[in-house]
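Hey Z.,

So I finally got round to the magnesium ion thing we talked about over coffee. Here's the setup:
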Amino acid sequence: RVKERGRAGFRFYQPQMNVDLLSRMKLDHAMRQGLPRGDFSLHYQPQVDLRTGAVVGAEALLRWRDEELGQVPPGRFIPVAEESGFIVTLGDWVLTQAVGQAARWHRAGRRWVVSINVSALQFQQPDFLERVASALAVSGLPADLLELELTESILVHDVDETLARLKALAKLGVRMAIDDFGTGYSSLGYLKRFPIRKLKIDRSFVNGLPSDESDVGIVRAIVHLARALGLKVIAEGVETQAQRQFLLEAGVDEFQGFLYSPAVPAEAFEASQTPTAEREVSR
Ligand code: C2E
Ligand code: MG
Ligand code: MG
Ligand code: MG
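And the result:
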């Protein structure tokens, strides 16, 4: 009887599971068709020095517009691509595109560090290092203008292998940042051992600033930790002046958020950074 009930219970949930599986398979299929068709693009969100107000870099963020589905947010398609393995192809495309864009900006005299998000499966590919090295070589981008955003989940996977990989990337001259810092459940020990340059304070801790006492405490603790380890700190998801002001006073180095700008196409990014006089002349 118990068994029967168990089966009945399973059957009860099954239709929903199938719908979800089906829609994930459809998304995956649409992505695989959409990439060669040019349905994906990268937008760039400015990273701003809190003290000087200068734009020092840009985070490349994937955008996907499908003919039938319309605009699909990364929060929807990235997990599907990670599950199916398509993220390896997609991530490689992002790497090539972002490095190419960074190299064009570099040739135009800009010193913007371009950050890309790297998924665990992509990072674990045996040829990941070669892919990064080759993207740099082909584009001519100085390695220190490329930053890889890694999540804590990557770092806890296989510590020895990860450490070797990070060291090889660091030797290339590429920079590494930990994305969504504080949301993972890894030990802090890796911060000491791994060649990481920057911590990105997750948006969820910026949200409640400056009034939420827990967020205030967490952000201060991250800044102290970063100082002790010689790491830079950037805050993401900054939407208000009060948040920006708090972060500046707390000793955070950079910020990123709608307060300054959302992610925009490369041309719009450049245009917003062109001094008015220069823009006048070129018009
Ligand atoms: P993330 O790397 O933590 O990127 C930051 C997200 O916060 C972006 O969402 C950005 O648009 C959003 N954001 C920035 N400023 C603000 C703000 O002031 N307020 C609010 N509410 N949101 C803000 P997006 O573009 O939807 O990307 C979501 C996530 O998808 C990213 O989180 C990243 O984990 C993933 N993702 C995006 N592009 C890529 C990619 O090329 N490769 C991989 N592997 N993952 C990507
Ligand atoms: Mg990121
Ligand atoms: Mg993030
Ligand atoms: Mg985040």
